[in-house]
Amino acid sequence: MSVNVDPKPTMRRYSPDQKEQAVRMVFALRAELGTSQGTVKRVADQLGIGVESVRGWVKQAEIDSGRRPGTSSAESEEVKRLRQENRELRRANEILQRAASFFGAELDRRQK
């Protein structure tokens, strides 16, 4: 008898509403119990979501709300946007430099 073992866990995408609900539940449970011990696991088990997924969402929510140090979602998006803009500007600059070099060489040839 062969056992089919998938070496890679399946990736599930969760909607922003599902993530927000899980985070709210963790915060509510923490407030109710007065402790953070085991709250993420309880909520994850209740919703059928991986513990590490919920833990990451809670951590990011704490960062975004200023409860924990780190890079907020807004800062992360801004850095991503600026890096993309930087890549585009470098590409445009390279094209302009090549064009200037090409047309400069053409002018030199015509003047001789």
Quick overview:
The protein is mainly α. It has helices spanning 16-33, 39-47, 51-64, 73-111. Helix 1 crosses helix 2, helix 1 crosses helix 3 (51-64) and helix 2 packs across helix 3 (51-64).
SSE topology sketch:
Layout (H helix, E strand, L loop, with lengths): L15 H18 L5 H9 L3 H14 L8 H39 L1
Task: Tell me what you see in this structure.
This protein is mostly helical and 112 residues long. The protein folds into 2 domains: 14-70, Winged helix-like DNA-binding domain superfamily/Winged helix DNA-binding domain (Arc Repressor Mutant, subunit A, Orthogonal Bundle); 72-112. It contains 4 helices and no strands. The protein has helices at residues 16-33, 39-47, 51-64, 73-111. Helix 1 packs across helix 2 and helix 2 crosses helix 3. The longest helix is centred in the last third of the chain and has 39 residues, at 73-111. The radius of gyration is 26 Å and the shape is rod-shaped.
Write down the CATH topology of the largest domain.
Answer: Arc Repressor Mutant, subunit A
Outline: rod-shaped
Note the main sheet. none
The named CATH superfamily of the largest domain: Winged helix-like DNA-binding domain superfamily/Winged helix DNA-binding domain
End-to-end Cα distance, whole Å, is 84 Å
CATH class of the largest domain: Mainly Alpha
* Average pLDDT level: 89
Class per helix and strand makeup? mainly alpha
**Portion in helices:** over 70%
Total count of domains: 2
User: DSSP helix count?
Assistant: 4
Write down the Rg: 26 Å
* Secondary-structure arrangement, i.e. CATH architecture of the largest domain: Orthogonal Bundle
